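For reproducibility, we list the full input for the fe (ii) ion complex.
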Amino acid sequence: MAAAAVGRGRRSGGMGMAQALLVVVVVLAAAAALPASLAVTSPYVRPPPRATLSLLQDADGQTPQQVHVSMAGQDKMRVSWITAGDAPATVEYGTAPGHYTRSATGTTATYSYLLYRSGNIHDAVVGPLRPATTYYYRCSGSAAREFSFRTPPATLPFRFVVAGDLGQTGWTNSTLEHVAAADYDALLLPGDLSYADFVQSRWDSFGRLVEPLASARPWMVTEGNHEVEKLPLLEPTPFKAYNARWRMPYDVSGAGAGAAVPPPSGDNLYYSFDVAGGAVHVVMLGSYTDYGAGSAQLAWLQRDLAAVDRGRAAFVVALVHAPWYNSNEAHQGEGDAMRAAMEELLYGARVDAVFAGHVHAYERFARVYGGKEDPCGPVHVTVGDGGNREGLAGKFVHPQPAISAFREASFGHGRLEVVNATHALWTWHRNDDDEPVVADQVLITSLAANPACNNRTNHKM
Ligand SMILES: [Fe+2]
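The corresponding predicted structure, in tokenized form, follows.
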């Protein structure tokens, strides 16, 4: 705006350079005087959604494909992969390329869905492993493809990528390229992975699309509505493909060697895990399975959060699919029932941040609880903008609520770098016409380190 004012002045001759500079100074001074908490709706206008990619070509029957890894306890990783034909569920691994000193054997399963029959879905848990170490591995004894992953570090700092509602379009590709362009330790996905939407071969193409990244760093996911894939009478079991293909550590205790160890959830649709030696506790909640009073998920969440030692866990973060706070016109109110069931629990445990997907836009809220700004509530962030085929949710509610700090309908991904026991840096990276741009950032301080929020008598556990 200031530059335009200078340009017009030159053309018309009506404003001298000194006056133009004065305008610039006044505008900048006015901007600097604005309160930091002013709610902002970004004016950025996005290009349209991109076409779904074609990734439907199968590999040979014995060749591992769709390889991805996930954390399975403090020092173990689960390797998951698919072969079209029969093959052993073995993973051979070691710290040098082509030199596999250890091996593990897991299990194999298949599923059918309407007329589709899956390949052989294998998984095997490898470890114990050293932290922050690169391991080379091959699956099903196949010499055709060698993969490598790096184990997460056992201490802070720890770098998460958070990307929701990925899908498999050209914009997904753009998001994945940007994710790959900067290193990270683990990816968190708050639901809506493949957008297969009943066409099961799309789960396979999604597995191939994300393999370069998901075979190299742990990808920790929770389910969205697109994972349900329930068809009345024909396919009555929900999450058939998701549970078969994306097995998470629901049967592994979330905490490590701490005194209080929460029990495993027992359900792939919600679970928790620790990273950085317990400095960060991550709770992956299920928005599309029971969460209300009397539900197994709610009872597990109570036990899980009660067992978190905030003297050790500097940060506690939670992921859901449908956001609990949302000022986009899309999916208004869809997270309200879950919020009503669980918000007090999270608040009592002083959860530092809640990340959501579902709404195909970015939005960051202030610390909130009970619909109001609260210094001891979590920062809520919607980052459902990975690049899916449904496009962006461009209509926001007006006026922007005071608790909404920044919102923009663009594709992108987020990064949470837990720097130390007191600070984490959150950044949101917009896919700005194929170039990543940091469009929003905020420093999040640990509520465990905030004496005003750390009075145990205030906790509503
Ligand atoms: Fe969704």
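The helical segments are 2-12, 17-33, 170-181, 201-214, 240-245, 296-306, 336-348. Confidence is low (pLDDT under 50) at residues 1-36, 457-461. Both points were considered when choosing residues for closer inspection.
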